[in-house]
């Protein structure tokens, strides 16, 4: 395992892919892998890209990769797809949309399933980003499934969140949903050659005005990703936000919040494993019959199991 980690730290894509697979599949080695890599993290700019299905996220990423390559940046992409209910794997395969970059030495692209995570992001997606960070990627994109109130999970992972909107797709309503305005650091109006782009821009500005003045007012960047229009402006906005985070109190607060989140997520996961094992030990036919007949309630059962766990210690 140490040899695999060493190869990954040298930038070997096969080794990186293997490490991500081990973490995604919850290998017994996963915790040790992440522990060994942690000291090498903290250098990459992690960018979340979210928006309605059909907003053009993958096409936009394809053009961003072109621009960043010209700046000699090493790039990682995690495309979070819905999980197949049959195989457990990702079913959209966004790598196909960015296939022109898939074999390039400085670009690593990986599709991952949500694995049932309500926020659209599994813990493995975060750990995959950390692996790519440790292994020398300068910029890491996380493309998420759709947009909605549960999608705010992206803000826990990304340094910068880009919210894609498209004229004529109801995004003027979507953007007003609780939580969506707060997560965006940059608004991208893609397919800006369509009718309604100016109106959508005006409505976003109105909403930003209603939220009051902040040290960082999210810029609105118009793009036509298919033609590569507006990509330079978007790259500048991303660089400006990265600089803002490095110099501001908000950036420090986000950093501290993420450190806390890392430990909290690990604790939740490890405690959940202990609870699940204890439940399997207690779940027999007699107990199920008692629950079905209402002679005992699930709250009492859960309380008893937790009592046994915490009385002997985790």
TrEMBL record:
It comes from the Bacteria. Keywords: Chaperone, GTP-binding, Hydrolase, Nucleotide-binding. Residues 43-212 form the AAA+ ATPase domain. GO terms for molecular function: GTP binding; GTPase activity. CDD domains: MMAA-like. Coiled coil: none annotated. NCBIfam families: lao. Belongs to the SIMIBI class G3E GTPase family. ArgK/MeaB subfamily. This is LAO/AO transport system ATPase. It comes from Acetomicrobium hydrogeniformans ATCC BAA-1850.
């Amino acid at each position: 395992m140490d040899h695999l980690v060493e190869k990954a730290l040298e930038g070997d894509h096969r080794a990186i892919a293997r490490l991500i697979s081990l973490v995604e599949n919850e290998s017994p080695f996963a915790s040790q892998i992440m522990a060994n890599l942690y000291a090498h993290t903290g250098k990459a700019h992690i960018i979340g890209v979210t928006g309605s299905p059909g907003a053009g996220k993958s096409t936009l990423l394809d053009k961003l990769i072109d621009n960043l390559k010209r700046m000699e940046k090493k790039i990682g992409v995690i495309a979070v797809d819905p999980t197949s209910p049959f195989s457990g794997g990702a079913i959209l395969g966004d790598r196909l949309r960015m296939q022109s970059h898939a074999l390039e030495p400085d670009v690593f692209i990986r599709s991952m399933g949500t694995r049932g995570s309500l926020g659209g992001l599994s813990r493995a997606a975060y750990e995959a980003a950390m692996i790519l960070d440790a292994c020398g990627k300068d910029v890491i994109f996380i493309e998420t499934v759709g947009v909605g109130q549960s999608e705010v999970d992206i803000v826990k992972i990304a340094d910068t969140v880009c919210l894609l909107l498209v004229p004529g797709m109801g995004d003027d309503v979507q953007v007003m949903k609780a939580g969506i305005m707060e997560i965006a650091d940059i608004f991208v109006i893609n397919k800006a050659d369509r009718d309604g782009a100016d109106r959508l821009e005006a409505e976003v500005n109105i909403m930003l005005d209603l939220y009051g003045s902040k040290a960082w007012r999210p810029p609105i960047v118009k793009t036509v990703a298919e033609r590569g229009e507006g990509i330079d402006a978007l790259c500048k906005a991303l660089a400006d936000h990265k600089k803002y985070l490095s110099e501001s109190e908000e950036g420090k607060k986000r950093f501290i919040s993420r450190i806390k989140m890392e430990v909290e997520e690990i604790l939740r996961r490890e405690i959940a494993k202990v609870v699940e094992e204890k439940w399997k030990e207690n779940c027999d036919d007699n107990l199920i019959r008692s629950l079905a007949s209402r002679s005992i309630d699930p709250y009492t059962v859960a309380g008893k199991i937790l009592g046994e766990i915490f009385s002997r210690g985790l």
